[in-house]
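User: Hey, quick favor. My workstation is busy. Could you predict this chain's structure for me?
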Amino acid sequence: MTRTIYRLTPKDLAVLEAMLMRRRAFADAIVPMLERKLAESNIIPAGMVEPDIATLNSRVVFRINDGAPETRTLMLGDASAPVGFGLPLGMRAGQSVVAERPDGSRERILLEDVAYQPEAKHQAARTAGRRPRSPRLVYSAAGDRWPLGGGGKIRQTEGDDPGPSEA
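Assistant: No problem, here it is.
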Protein backbone atom coordinates (compact mmCIF):
# COMPACT_ATOMS: atom_id res chain seq x y z
CA MET A 1 0.00 0.00 0.00
CA THR A 2 1.32 3.46 -0.88
CA ARG A 3 1.03 6.35 1.48
CA THR A 4 -0.15 9.80 0.47
CA ILE A 5 2.59 12.37 0.67
CA TYR A 6 1.49 14.87 -1.99
CA ARG A 7 -1.73 16.80 -2.60
CA LEU A 8 -2.12 17.90 -6.22
CA THR A 9 -4.66 20.03 -8.03
CA PRO A 10 -5.98 18.59 -11.31
CA LYS A 11 -3.71 21.04 -13.18
CA ASP A 12 -0.65 19.91 -11.20
CA LEU A 13 -1.57 16.28 -11.90
CA ALA A 14 -1.89 16.94 -15.64
CA VAL A 15 1.53 18.64 -15.73
CA LEU A 16 3.23 15.77 -13.92
CA GLU A 17 1.50 13.12 -16.06
CA ALA A 18 2.56 14.89 -19.27
CA MET A 19 6.10 15.21 -17.94
CA LEU A 20 6.11 11.50 -17.10
CA MET A 21 5.00 10.54 -20.61
CA ARG A 22 7.71 12.71 -22.20
CA ARG A 23 10.40 11.42 -19.87
CA ARG A 24 9.40 7.77 -20.41
CA ALA A 25 9.90 8.26 -24.14
CA PHE A 26 13.54 9.17 -23.49
CA ALA A 27 14.14 6.57 -20.74
CA ASP A 28 14.98 9.41 -18.34
CA ALA A 29 16.40 8.51 -14.92
CA ILE A 30 13.71 10.50 -13.10
CA VAL A 31 10.83 8.33 -14.40
CA PRO A 32 10.69 6.11 -11.27
CA MET A 33 10.61 9.18 -9.02
CA LEU A 34 7.80 10.79 -11.02
CA GLU A 35 5.84 7.51 -10.93
CA ARG A 36 6.29 7.34 -7.16
CA LYS A 37 5.20 10.96 -6.74
CA LEU A 38 2.02 10.32 -8.72
CA ALA A 39 1.32 7.07 -6.84
CA GLU A 40 1.67 8.84 -3.48
CA SER A 41 -0.67 11.73 -4.37
CA ASN A 42 -4.25 12.71 -3.62
CA ILE A 43 -6.06 14.95 -6.07
CA ILE A 44 -7.83 17.97 -4.57
CA PRO A 45 -10.16 20.33 -6.48
CA ALA A 46 -8.42 23.67 -7.01
CA GLY A 47 -11.06 25.54 -5.00
CA MET A 48 -10.53 23.31 -1.96
CA VAL A 49 -6.75 23.11 -1.72
CA GLU A 50 -5.36 24.33 1.59
CA PRO A 51 -3.27 27.53 1.44
CA ASP A 52 -0.16 25.79 2.83
CA ILE A 53 0.05 23.32 -0.09
CA ALA A 54 2.60 24.07 -2.83
CA THR A 55 0.80 24.18 -6.19
CA LEU A 56 1.91 25.24 -9.63
CA ASN A 57 2.76 28.98 -9.62
CA SER A 58 3.14 29.03 -5.82
CA ARG A 59 6.05 30.91 -4.28
CA VAL A 60 7.74 28.59 -1.78
CA VAL A 61 10.52 28.76 0.79
CA PHE A 62 12.47 25.51 1.18
CA ARG A 63 15.78 24.06 2.32
CA ILE A 64 17.90 21.37 0.72
CA ASN A 65 19.64 19.29 3.39
CA ASP A 66 20.90 21.78 5.99
CA GLY A 67 21.42 24.61 3.50
CA ALA A 68 20.14 28.15 3.66
CA PRO A 69 16.47 28.81 2.88
CA GLU A 70 15.75 29.35 -0.82
CA THR A 71 12.71 30.96 -2.41
CA ARG A 72 11.36 29.85 -5.78
CA THR A 73 8.17 30.05 -7.79
CA LEU A 74 7.03 26.64 -9.02
CA MET A 75 6.55 27.26 -12.73
CA LEU A 76 6.10 25.10 -15.76
CA GLY A 77 9.42 25.37 -17.56
CA ASP A 78 10.99 23.64 -20.48
CA ALA A 79 11.40 19.89 -20.63
CA SER A 80 14.85 20.08 -19.02
CA ALA A 81 13.49 21.70 -15.85
CA PRO A 82 11.34 19.15 -14.01
CA VAL A 83 8.99 21.40 -12.06
CA GLY A 84 7.58 19.91 -8.91
CA PHE A 85 9.65 16.77 -9.20
CA GLY A 86 12.55 17.87 -7.03
CA LEU A 87 10.95 20.98 -5.65
CA PRO A 88 7.99 20.55 -3.34
CA LEU A 89 4.97 20.57 -5.69
CA GLY A 90 2.08 19.03 -3.77
CA MET A 91 3.77 19.20 -0.36
CA ARG A 92 2.44 20.93 2.75
CA ALA A 93 4.49 23.56 4.61
CA GLY A 94 6.57 21.79 7.27
CA GLN A 95 6.74 18.57 5.26
CA SER A 96 10.00 17.08 3.99
CA VAL A 97 10.90 14.39 1.50
CA VAL A 98 14.10 12.66 0.45
CA ALA A 99 14.74 12.96 -3.29
CA GLU A 100 17.17 10.82 -5.20
CA ARG A 101 19.22 12.62 -7.83
CA PRO A 102 20.04 11.02 -11.19
CA ASP A 103 23.61 10.36 -9.95
CA GLY A 104 22.25 8.27 -7.05
CA SER A 105 22.91 10.80 -4.29
CA ARG A 106 20.05 11.81 -2.03
CA GLU A 107 18.97 15.12 -0.60
CA ARG A 108 16.32 16.07 1.92
CA ILE A 109 13.95 18.81 0.82
CA LEU A 110 12.06 20.65 3.57
CA LEU A 111 9.20 22.93 2.53
CA GLU A 112 9.31 25.69 5.12
CA ASP A 113 6.56 27.97 3.84
CA VAL A 114 4.14 28.59 0.98
CA ALA A 115 4.52 32.35 0.73
CA TYR A 116 1.96 32.69 -2.08
CA GLN A 117 -0.48 30.21 -3.58
CA PRO A 118 -2.71 31.33 -6.47
CA GLU A 119 -5.62 29.08 -5.51
CA ALA A 120 -5.75 30.58 -2.01
CA LYS A 121 -5.62 34.10 -3.46
CA HIS A 122 -8.53 33.36 -5.81
CA GLN A 123 -10.53 31.66 -3.02
CA ALA A 124 -10.06 34.66 -0.72
CA ALA A 125 -11.29 37.00 -3.46
CA ARG A 126 -14.37 34.84 -4.11
CA THR A 127 -15.14 34.64 -0.39
CA ALA A 128 -14.97 38.43 -0.17
CA GLY A 129 -17.37 38.72 -3.12
CA ARG A 130 -14.76 40.07 -5.53
CA ARG A 131 -13.54 38.72 -8.82
CA PRO A 132 -9.93 37.54 -8.65
CA ARG A 133 -7.59 40.13 -10.10
CA SER A 134 -5.82 39.45 -13.32
CA PRO A 135 -2.10 40.03 -13.63
CA ARG A 136 -1.26 43.65 -14.31
CA LEU A 137 1.78 45.44 -15.55
CA VAL A 138 3.47 47.55 -12.93
CA TYR A 139 5.96 50.11 -14.17
CA SER A 140 7.83 52.50 -11.93
CA ALA A 141 10.59 54.11 -13.97
CA ALA A 142 11.26 57.83 -14.04
CA GLY A 143 8.64 59.97 -15.79
CA ASP A 144 10.86 60.59 -18.80
CA ARG A 145 11.51 56.85 -19.39
CA TRP A 146 8.74 54.69 -20.84
CA PRO A 147 8.85 51.01 -21.78
CA LEU A 148 9.22 50.01 -25.41
CA GLY A 149 9.80 53.58 -26.52
CA GLY A 150 6.24 54.63 -25.64
CA GLY A 151 5.21 58.12 -24.68
CA GLY A 152 3.68 59.51 -21.55
CA LYS A 153 0.10 59.42 -22.74
CA ILE A 154 -2.12 57.30 -24.92
CA ARG A 155 -3.31 58.89 -28.11
CA GLN A 156 -5.88 57.76 -30.64
CA THR A 157 -4.92 57.94 -34.29
CA GLU A 158 -7.59 58.83 -36.78
CA GLY A 159 -9.19 56.19 -38.97
CA ASP A 160 -8.09 53.00 -37.26
CA ASP A 161 -11.56 52.08 -35.98
CA PRO A 162 -14.53 51.92 -38.33
CA GLY A 163 -17.26 54.35 -37.39
CA PRO A 164 -21.00 53.50 -37.49
CA SER A 165 -21.27 54.47 -41.17
CA GLU A 166 -18.18 52.43 -42.13
CA ALA A 167 -19.17 49.15 -40.40
